[in-house]
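Priority: low. Protein: Glutamine-dependent NAD(+) synthetase. Input follows.
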Amino acid sequence: MSAHPFYSMHEHGFVRVATSTPKVRTADVAFNRDAVLAEAQRAHEAHVDLLVFPELCLSSYAIDDLHLQAAMIEAVEAAVAEIVHASADLSPVLLVGAALPHKGRLYNCALAIAHGRLLGVVPKSYLPNYREFYEKRWFASGKTLKGQTIRVNGQEVPFGVDLVFASEVLPNFRFFIEICEDIWAATPPSSHGALAGATILCNLSASNIVIGKSDERHLLCRSQSARATAAYIYSAAGHGESTTDLAWDGQGIVYELGDLLAESERFSLEAELCIADVDVDRIVMDRMRVPTFNDAAEVAGRPDETFRTVRFRHAPAGGDIGLIRPVSRFPFVPSRADKLDADCYEAFNIQVDGLMRRIEATGAKSMVIGISGGLDSTHALIVAARACDRLGLPRSFIRGYTMPGFATSDGTKSNAWTLMNAVGITAEEIDIRPAATTMLQDIGHAFSNGEPVYDVTFENVQAGLRTDYLFRLANQHDGFVIGTGDLSELALGWCTYGVGDQMSHYTVNAGVPKTLIQYLIRWCATTGQFGAETEEVLLAILGTEISPELVPAGADGAIQSTEAKIGPYELNDFFLHHVMRFGQKPSKVAFLALHAWHDAALGTWPAGFPEDRKNEYDLAAIRSWLEKFLRRFFAFSQFKRSAVPNGPKVSSGGALSPRGDWRAPSDASAAVWLAELEAKVPIR
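Result:
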């Protein structure tokens, strides 16, 4: 089944890129030529589509006045001819650094080579001539060269800083080249290259290493990939360069939209090949989504209309060649180990700050919240508690109500009371069963006649009564109702509309998906945010199965399970992120989910994630749950989101407020998405 197009990363808009730090020898062109070809062959065997070598790698960079020796110039040009010839049988496009003469000047160049053709030559724009650098002694700047050609080994090819190279085989595989110092310029040439349509920005560099420079490169590459809405590939010279006065670390970096995809080993004595799969379709979709990019292109004079496009054919590998890039299982959950505490603190306090402002604005005398002993109300309560702490209000300002119904378990009720007492709020209990029984009798529901009918009406009578009580209690105590429903439930429509848990005066969890709520509760419980008693009950609540507890347990004792009905929240949150944030097609979402979730032993898990919760899913399960997600998200639940109460956005992944990230009609069809899933994703 791996021959099915679904399993090919190229079918989903990925391009395999790599940086190479070949083993070079100072001023030994033949040795360096062979080293370049050896790395090109390795990249070919790894199914690489684009391979970026360091600056001036054919001669090596640090050879000073030897650049101006006629024998060196001729040897480099001859080596270029041999590499072009050898490339005929190689899959990657090769970006090779070489010095080439043109009209009586010598230029520091990047050469694009593919399938036996020299596609074009890009000169370096900005020549460093300060501290240890003396490039203007040997080279001419190419920053104004546009629309020209250069003669290399008897062939005229495009030459200039106005070249975008575009694949005829893989849509959106379009790259631009700049060289070393260009990224340090106030206006890097790659900014215009991106505005001209390049999705991948490449830098051939011979940057020497000093303390702190690696961090500086990361800063520049990350910021350029984010600002230009692109991927950025950086390849620096390594061992083998002259160490007469400098040292070299061979750093290779691949960024995409500000995210680090891969980094090579630095200071390696062996040749380095740093590979990552870049999502060029995601880049294009993000440019469509953010009009600032197009505005910048207009201000820059529409570079897409003035730059030249050099089209090329190549032979990307078909079939299942894997996926070489980090795919987060929990895209809403903080994953930076060195920033974990700061990220969790930030997420938690976004909610706290939003609620604080609402307390100030309303002049309320209390906050009213229903406490079920489940995840969402637990998290909303600790957010409310911290808001009170920061405003100097007693926690008794919070009025918490646990409202047992026909299916409330002793465990969740006990957790609810333990939590309220531990946090120190005003706590009460209202048994909704008598009122629910009366309502069911009034409407003639079969349950009131003793029949075990547990339909949606039976469930929503309970959910609606709880909300009704909360609103009336808020009236009585001059307060407002804190909503507890989360982003995942809004995405799936897993909430009771109107007089139900969909409604409140302010909903602190509306921008927080279930997986992030779980993680933030665990963070609060394990980092001393609250007292020991509170932390103990928080961990107990985390270990409880997610259930609305609206239907009595079956004869076998099995309780109502939310995830058995709508799917695992960890998958639904994965689907939501890729659909909402990037507009990904269902087939691509399934492809990414398969690579993220097919093997629990592969990839990374959030720090402190429980071993017994490390699940895995095969394609059949992913496809089945994704189909259900698409039906609920696109065709069923938008009317509930269109009337969502106020609440703060928390994650860059987005929110579903009609006043924020997501606007959609309430009567749309899911047919387009379901048809794409059916056509493109195999059953298994």
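The chain has a mean pLDDT of 95. The first helix runs from residue 29 to 45.
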